[in-house]
């Protein structure tokens, strides 16, 4: 089963269970009114969620109240309360915005706090329209040889630094999208530049080893001092991969091979001639009838296997053959939130506890997709740490902010019983593993997970993993760039913020100021 710890639409990476396509208990939502415990809530007026979820008398984070007040009163869109991740639909805010409109709280940002890295711009600089004349010319040139229809911003990476991204026209934007949630510690980070200039890095880049057959002699040390140093609790082994979709795809394969070995009687049992011959014709019993259960609205990638568990947008799936695999409706919180605080809290924990118990009872593997939520984005290094699981997931996939990819596991039987069954030429990239090691070093040195938790609390909620729906999303994103902020979209209508781990309170102030201007611009 692939269980989603992610966000709306594009990012709802969940977790898969390899199961047989027969009536199965986990096809049903574990609880009708619960969501996975403490998963990141995805709503920009996140303060709305805080207000209705907080205990009576509690004070909401001051930072966001102003924006939400303007947002609600702007008539840009009906105010919404979005369900906890990974659900993608919204509910109307009950009783309207009156109690928000009467409140005004001054910002409390320590604006004079120094950035983590010297040389970062003081704020956005917008000199031209976006794209500007230089960008337009270079985009036209690029389009002759490369599909640019998904292009958001032609970038001058020499001029990017820290939390800021620049274009060839001299515009500089506060980047709260970060290469689709993939930049953890800023552009042109000095520590990463130093790592990139090391003899180890040169060796890995120039000689590009096929890691499955010709790994470097120090590969074990590279893994132990980097990727495995931050392994989730109980998972002490890793399969390295190239990207998030690749990580999920190979995790699925590992799950299927493990299950079939178990059904066969163990790793020591050899394949039958019938299995070997039928596999060559894509037939059973060699080609198994196992499946992965994922959640509606989930996103796990665009490769053949992962695409059958992705259910966020039709455009991802149309025309592509797919497996007939099951899906479950993600459980929900009870509304109104302020009337069900304790009930929802208990249901959240019970939901994940019961789901884990069901997977164990039926010998089904639980795969948690942390491609986008991992590496600190939610105020914990891994988002599933919020779930308080006594029994860890069987596999956890990762990529994006890790700058590399793969899956963690603990059970030695998740290694296939024979070589070359889980294999490709590169099996990861030692250069990227070295970059992740340097990233981990900076995260620890600067205590950036704690920074994200603190700034997330100042901004809206749990970490900085935030999104909200807007029926005029594309126009909203374009106007945000006009005011110096690069924000991303997801799914049909979601706006998602994915700032870096070096995002501070002063950046949150700049973000809110810009969003106020965006909202007010719709009234002009």
From TrEMBL:
The keyword Transferase applies. Signal peptide: none annotated. Coiled coil: none annotated. The keyword Transferase applies. Belongs to the class-III pyridoxal-phosphate-dependent aminotransferase family. GO terms for biological process: gamma-aminobutyric acid catabolic process. Its cofactor is pyridoxal 5'-phosphate. This is Gamma-amino-N-butyrate transaminase. Residues 1-37 are annotated as: Disordered. Residues 1-10 have a biased composition (Basic and acidic residues). It comes from the Eukaryota. One of its GO terms (cellular component) is mitochondrion. Keywords: Aminotransferase, Pyridoxal phosphate, Transferase. InterPro entries: Aminotrans_3, Aminotrans_3_PPA_site, PyrdxlP-dep_Trfase, PyrdxlP-dep_Trfase_major, PyrdxlP-dep_Trfase_small. GO terms for molecular function: pyridoxal phosphate binding; transaminase activity.
């Amino acid at each position: 089963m692939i269980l989603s710890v992610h966000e709306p639409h594009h990012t709802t990476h969940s977790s898969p269970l390899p199961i047989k396509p027969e009536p199965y208990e986990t096809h049903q939502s574990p609880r009708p009114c619960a969501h996975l415990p403490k998963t990141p809530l995805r709503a920009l007026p996140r303060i709305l969620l805080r207000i209705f979820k907080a205990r009576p008398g509690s004070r909401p984070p001051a930072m966001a109240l102003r924006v939400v007040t303007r947002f609600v009163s702007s008539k840009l869109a009906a105010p919404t309360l979005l369900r906890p991740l990974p659900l993608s639909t919204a509910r109307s805010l009950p009783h309207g915005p009156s109690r928000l409109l009467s409140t005004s709280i001054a910002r409390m940002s320590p604006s004079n706090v120094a950035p983590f890295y010297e040389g970062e711009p003081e704020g956005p600089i917008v000199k031209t329209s976006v794209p500007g004349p230089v960008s337009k010319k270079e985009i036209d040139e690029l389009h002759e040889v490369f599909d640019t229809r998904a292009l958001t911003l032609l970038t001058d990476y020499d001029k990017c630094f820290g939390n800021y991204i620049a274009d060839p026209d001299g515009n500089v934007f506060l980047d709260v999208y970060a290469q689709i949630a993939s930049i953890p510690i800023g552009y042109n980070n000095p520590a990463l530049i130093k790592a990139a200039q090391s003899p180890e890095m040169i060796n890995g880049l120039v000689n590009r080893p096929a890691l499955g057959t010709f790994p470097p002699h120090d590969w074990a040390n590279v893994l132990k001092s980097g990727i495995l140093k931050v392994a989730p609790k109980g998972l002490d082994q890793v399969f390295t991969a190239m990207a998030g979709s690749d990580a999920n795809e190979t995790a699925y394969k590992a799950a299927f091979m493990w299950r079939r070995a178990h059904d066969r009687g163990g790793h020591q049992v050899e394949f039958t001639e019938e299995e070997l011959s039928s596999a060559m014709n894509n037939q059973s019993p060699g080609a198994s009838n196992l499946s992965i259960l994922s959640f509606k609205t989930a996103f796990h990638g665009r490769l053949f296997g992962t695409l059958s568990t992705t259910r966020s947008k039709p455009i991802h799936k149309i025309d592509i053959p797919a497996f007939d695999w099951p899906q479950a409706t993600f459980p929900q919180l009870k509304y109104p939130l302020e009337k069900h605080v304790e009930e929802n809290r208990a249901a959240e924990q019970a939901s994940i506890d019961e789901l884990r118990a069901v997977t164990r009872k039926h010998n089904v593997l639980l795969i948690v997709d942390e491609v986008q939520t991992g590496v600190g984005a939610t105020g914990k290094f891994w988002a599933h740490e919020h779930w308080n699981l006594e029994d860890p997931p069987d596999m956890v996939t990762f990529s994006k902010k890790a700058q590399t990819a793969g899956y963690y596991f603990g059970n030695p039987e998740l290694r296939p019983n024979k070589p070359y069954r889980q294999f490709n030429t590169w099996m990861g990239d030692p250069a990227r593993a070295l970059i992740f090691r340097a990233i981990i070093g900076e995260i620890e040195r600067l205590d950036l997970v704690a920074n994200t938790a603190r700034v997330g609390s100042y901004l809206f909620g749990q970490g900085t993993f935030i999104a909200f729906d807007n029926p005029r999303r594309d126009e909203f994103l374009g106007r945000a760039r006009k005011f110096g902020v690069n924000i991303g979209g997801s799914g049909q209508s979601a706006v998602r913020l994915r700032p870096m781990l070096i995002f501070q309170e002063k950046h949150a102030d700049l973000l809110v100021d810009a969003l106020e201007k965006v909202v007010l611009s719709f009234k002009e």
